[in-house]
Amino acid sequence: MKKLNCPSSCPYLRQAKALEMAQREAEWAQKSSERAEIEQRLTAFALEEAISTFAAEHPDLTDAEAISALQAVQGAVEREVMSGIPHEPNVDGRAKELALRILKNAQTMRQRIGIPHNVLLARVARLLTQRAMLLSQRTRDGQGYLKAVRIDVPPNSLEQLLERLTSSAGR
């Protein structure tokens, strides 16, 4: 395979990346579907726990900032999958702070329980982005997604979940 120096905006490069990600997701989905579902839910919890905790610290955070952070995480992880080189989230301001917090939660989970791998992380970031966009449209205040996250995932709860998972694995 020959490497070409295409800009990231090249439509052929984008199409090739999308195809490769779809193939990798299909490989992941071929695992035991029950295990894949559990891994996806745990990953979603970790990402949304970062968002919930960050939103508790920044009450004026908007759905748009959370969506930008999730999209930046997805993009950075997809670029890493394709190149093998870690990438910073391509976003500024609080959205970047949030994106880095999300990646930190993913790294913490990876160190403690071995998931998520990058293909799963990119998939979950994409699914949560879609969820956030839908929930954001349901309210006028720009915080429909954040309200749902605060209900579903308590702030500062990742460590507690990881403790429960690792203590039950040791039994």
Tell me about this structure:
The protein has 171 residues and is an all-alpha fold. The chain has 7 helices and no strands. It has one domain. Helix 3 packs across helix 4 and helix 4 runs parallel beside helix 7. The mean pLDDT is 89.
Summary of the model, kept short:
This protein is mostly helical and 171 residues long. The chain has 7 helices and no strands. The protein is globular and about 50 Å long.
What key phrases describe this protein's structure?
171 residues; 74% helix; single chain; mainly alpha; globular
Strand proportion, as a percent range, falls in under 5%
Give the domain tally.
Answer: 1
Helix amount:
over 70%
Unreliable segments of 5+ consecutive residues: none
Helix-strand category: mainly alpha
Describe the global form. Answer: globular
Spell out the blueprint of helices and strands.
Layout: H1 11-29, H2 33-57, H3 63-83, H4 93-113, H5 118-136, H6 144-152, H7 158-169
Helix pairs in contact: 2-4, 2-5, 3-4, 3-5, 4-7, 5-6
